TrEMBL record:
Name of this protein: DNA-formamidopyrimidine glycosylase family protein
Taxon lineage: Bacteria, Pseudomonadati, Bdellovibrionota, Bacteriovoracia, Bacteriovoracales
PROSITE patterns per record: FPG_CAT
Signal sequence range: none
Catalyzed reactions per annotation: Hydrolysis of DNA containing ring-opened 7-methylguanine residues, releasing 2,6-diamino-4-hydroxy-5-(N-methyl)formamidopyrimidine
Xref: SUPFAM superfamilies: N-terminal domain of MutM-like DNA repair proteins, S13-like H2TH domain
UniProt entry keywords in alphabetical sequence: DNA damage, DNA repair, DNA-binding, Glycosidase, Hydrolase, Lyase, Multifunctional enzyme
Formamidopyrimidine-DNA glycosylase catalytic domain: residues covered: 2-113
InterPro entries: FPG_cat, FPG_N, H2TH_FPG, Ribosomal_uS13-like_H2TH
Length: 275
């Protein structure tokens, strides 16, 4: 599933092709279920900027309006020179004036992605309701402490997957954040000390930045970036899907990673690094 680093990667890759004038907008019949709100037809509007908030891509349009795109389980936006012969392509924007990357295609085999095409007014209402992004300066140690204080009885690792509290954190990231922060995945939020909250914040930065640098993390059959390529983020993982803790290996010590199931999701941790 595309998580925050993967959505950030797609944003970074699409940005150089802007401005993109939507001279033609083609929607497949299957997008009816995916387009949740369409205040206007985007034909002849220009995408001037793309930003990310949590796992939302926000396309700013000129002369007005916004497209909000959530990639769901398997969505991606891909740029190409010619229309893609892609059976899971659901939206196609075409800018004929471009010598290259004049086609922007939304591809989503599982079709859990969704869209809103909103006027400025309706966008503002939607944006104000979004939770604070974990990479925002407002998502600081105090903010995390406040969340833990409010929900003190949550095992930390599954709680990191709560999209209202930690928007954009996915399963692999949650295991990696706990590992790099040195915290056992089963620890309760109420028992996490102030210096450990700082370690969680630092670990979040390392995990997000590492994954963005390698253009996202692709597991079997999963996410593709805007060029249709797999991300290389798997190389950065220290415990997730690993037999041995990579942090221990760096110290010349071999420690077997322990796999457990928490809240129905696979959790990986290092018994030596995590207390
Ligand atoms: Zn270790």
């Amino acid at each position: 599933m595309p998580e925050l680093p993967e959505v950030e990667t797609i944003k970074n890759q699409l940005t150089p092709i802007l401005p993109f004038k939507i001279e033609a907008a083609v929607f497949s019949p299957l997008t009816k279920r995916m387009v949740k709100q369409m205040d206007f037809d985007p034909t002849n509007f220009t995408i001037t900027k793309i930003r990310r908030h949590a796992k939302w891509l926000i396309f700013e349009l000129s002369p007005y309006g916004y497209i909000l795109s959530h990639l769901g389980m398997s969505g991606s936006w891909q740029m190409s020179h010619a229309p893609l012969a892609e059976k899971h392509g659901h939206i196609e924007f075409i800018d004929k004036s471009k010598a290259q990357f004049g086609v922007l295609t939304y591809i989503d085999p599982r079709r859990f992605g969704h869209f809103y095409l909103l006027t400025n007014e309706n966008f503002k209402i939607k944006e104000d309701a979004l939770p604070i992004d974990i990479t925002s300066p407002d998502f600081d140690v105090d903010h995390i402490a406040e969340i833990f204080f409010k929900y003190p009885n949550k095992p930390i690792k599954p709680f990191l997957l709560d999209q209202k509290a930690f928007p954009g954190v996915g399963n692999y990231m949650a295991s990696e954040i706990c590992a790099r922060a040195g915290i056992l995945p089963t620890r309760l939020t109420g028992n996490i000390e102030a210096d450990e909250i700082q370690k969680i914040k630092d670990a979040m930065n390392v995990v997000v930045n590492g994954a963005v640098e390698t253009k996202g993390t692709t597991f079997s059959g999963g996410y593709r970036d805007a060029n249709g390529d797999k991300g290389e983020g798997v190389k950065h993982l220290v415990v997730f899907y690993q037999n041995h803790c990579q942090m221990c290996l760096e110290e010349g010590i071999v420690t077997k990673v322990i796999k457990t199931i928490q809240g129905g999701r696979g959790t990986y941790h290092c018994p030596r690094h995590q207390k």
